[in-house]
Amino acid sequence: MKKILLGLTLLFCCVINLYAQQYDVAFNSINSLLQNNEPRSFRNAVFITENVYLDNKLDSIKWNAACNKLGTLAYSWLSNAVGTEERKNTDLLKNQAIFQVLKDTTSIIIDSPARIVYLPYEYNFEDFDGTKDWRNTLVTTLLTSHKGNCHSMPYLYKIIADELRATCWLTLAPNHLYLRNYIPEKGWYNTELTNGSFPTDAMIATANYIPLKAIQGSLYMDTLSNQQSIALCLVDLAQGYERKTHNYYDGFILKCCDTVLKYHATNPNAMLLRAETLKKLYEREKANKNDNAANTYALMEQQYIHLYDLGYREMPEKMYKAWLKTMKEQQSKP
């Protein structure tokens, strides 16, 4: 029995070491994309993050082809919907085309009367946060199942927008991600893919229980630059590593969070994950009577206080589920 337990322990350690190596490679690749900050870097960062979580089994050619197909579909809709080349190049219409492809039934005539019909992408209300299966938060799953959440759907939207050279900005809210768009003649507007709507800032702030202080401190409802969007993928990378290994102690999660905060100092997801990781580390060090425990505690406390000072408040799960129920009811309306 002891030999069996020893063998299983060694096997587990080997698997964890393999994950650590794979995730280090992924981190270095995304870090390089961060430094280069090119238009397609976000798409590549998303692929790297999801591929390593799926044990490097994704086919990059097929994955990119699936994304490109949606870009081509959006451009086809755009070409059919508007007349002049000048109008086709406006941000408003490009974003309208992307929204149409993702949230409405789209048909393309290939040889009259034959046509290809593409069904809209839907919100996965059954596992909206990946609790049952983390793969439900991935763009990869969205592409294959046509069901996603407020993480994968805005990501896919931005991937298509980058392909069409349409401007849009990922924007954070508590436990949520949506898009902001800008029209020179009209100003800013929001795109909510959960139920396919365009809520006002006031509606988002109220529905997500966002205090004014959190908005003023750029914690929430602030547009992310392309570089900050790439950095957000490092939060995903760290969360995937957490799911895979439950290893809070080797410094990988902290390395990801620190890198994110270098490019996006007020990223609430990175700060919260950093604080919770420091808490796990402190608890282990305290149990082992490690001399560094007091220093770790001070760093953890400092991070939690900084989050609070910026206006962070945890949205109660009951309220979040009530908001999701509202979104689901609105989506069901014709």
TrEMBL record:
Domain of life: Bacteria
Annotated signal sequence range: 1-20
Keyword Signal (UniProt): yes
Key words, A-Z: Signal
Protein name, entry field: Protein SirB1 N-terminal domain-containing protein
Provenance organism: Taibaiella soli
